[in-house]
Each structure stands twice: as C-alpha cells, then as structure tokens.
Write a structure and sequence with these properties.
The complex is a heterodimer of chains A (113) and B (113). By secondary structure, chain A is mainly β. Chain A contains no helices and 11 strands. In chain B, a hairpin with a 2-residue loop joins strand 5 and strand 6. Chain B has 113 residues and is mainly beta. The chains are: A mainly beta (113), B mainly beta (113).
Chain lengths: 113, 113
C-alpha cells in the first residue's frame, strides 16, 4: 500500500488570511495527483488533476503546484473565506495495473470569521 | 442532471446479516469504485470496476462483494465476514484514464450492532 501524507492534519485560519498545505507522495511511478474538497454533508468534489512535474493549476482563489521529482504538491488558498472550510484530500495514482487512487487522510481547514 | 446516487443515506443492521449498498450513476462512466472511510483514516479502496462484468479487489476487499451487471450500477454487499463493517461508504465513478477526476456520491453510513 502506497503512503500519501498530508500536513497539517487540521488548520484554523482567520478569514481573509492566505494559507497552504502539503501532500507528499512516492516520487516513483508517478501518473497523476488529484486534489478534492470535501465539505460537511456534501460529497467530495474534484479541484485539480495534475500530471506533469512543475504543473500549476488555479481555480479562483485556490491554486496548486506539483513537484513529482521530490514527491510533493502544495495547495494554496488566497484570502480565505468561510465557504473554504472543508477537508482537502489529495490522492496519488501510480498506474501499475491498479486503477485506484491512494488517498491521504486530508487536511481539515476551518476558517474563523 | 448527471450524477451518482447512493442509497440509503443511513443503514442499520444486526451483526451477522449481509447488507447491500446501492450505487447508481448516469454519467456514462466506465469505471466505478467503492471506498470506505473510518475516523482518522484516508479513503480506502474496497473494489473497483473498469467495465461491465469485470471488477477488481482494492486494498481492503475482505468481507465485501460486488457485481457490475450494468454500466450504471455497482452495488456493494457487506457480508457477515467483514469484521468491522461500521463505517462511511462512498461510491465514485470516472471516465477511464488516470487524468480523469472521480465523481462521488453522497455516501452511506452503515452501523452494525
């Protein structure tokens, strides 16, 4: 079983502040890195799928970067708003014949007004 | 609107009984997945199916069974052999290919007493 680590486990941020968190994954056999946002009482929603080293993706105030050689991805949120409160999951796909993604435990983000 | 429907939302069963969780999608996706979430853990893959009449074990398949008789449907049976069946179960689907994101249902919370 592959090891995908997310840090920190939880994070409290003041509304308006910017924040970031990390996903670490094996640097070998890389195919793709997914980010999902999971709000309470809703289903997880895809934010980004990143496949190339050096990829940077942006959706509104949220952006992500990818370093496949060292095995990490950062997710950034600029000017946090209460609606950003959620658990952010990353998932690593290594191919190898298995079609499943290996998920990290998530970063639980709470935005304080 | 296209999406994934899981039912029921909450399910209660007595120990020793088999129970089947429903998952239906109208996204025309080939691949479907079952994940389990426990407190403090990442999503763990139970079974997945890339095409009708074919499915593969994930990381924690023991005590579970699935079928894929139709493209739209991927029911999960939690058998009495599953030692710790109480958990939150998520179904997902996606287009084939590692760069396609997962689309999730709203989940079923199973409690076995």
């Amino acid at each position: 079983i592959l090891n995908v680590e997310q840090s920190p486990q939880s994070l409290h941020v003041q509304e308006g502040d910017s924040t970031n968190f990390t996903c670490s994954f094996p640097s070998s056999n890389f195919y793709a890195l997914h980010w999902y946002r999971w709000e309470t009482a809703k289903s997880p929603e895809a934010l980004f799928v990143m496949t190339l080293n050096g990829d940077e993706k942006k959706k509104g105030r949220i952006s992500a970067t990818l370093n496949t050689k060292e095995g990490y991805s950062y997710l950034y949120i600029k000017g946090s708003q209460p609606e950003d409160s959620a658990t952010y999951l990353c998932a690593f796909y290594s191919g190898g014949g298995a079609d499943g993604l290996t998920f990290g435990k998530g970063t639980h983000l709470i935005i304080q007004p | 609107d296209g999406g994934i429907t899981q039912s029921p939302k909450y399910l209660f069963r007595k120990e020793g009984q088999n129970v089947t969780l429903s998952c239906e999608q109208n996204l025309n996706h080939d691949a479907m997945y079952w994940y389990r979430q426990d407190p403090g853990q990442g999503l763990r893959l139970i079974y997945y199916s890339q095409i009708v009449n074919d499915f593969q074990k994930g990381d924690i398949a023991e005590g579970y069974s699935v079928s894929r008789e139709k493209k739209e449907s991927f029911p999960l049976t939690v058998t009495s052999a599953q030692k710790n069946p109480t958990a939150f179960y998520l179904c997902a689907s996606r287009d084939r290919g590692y760069s396609s994101p997962l689309h999730f249902g709203n989940g079923t919370r199973l409690t076995v007493t």
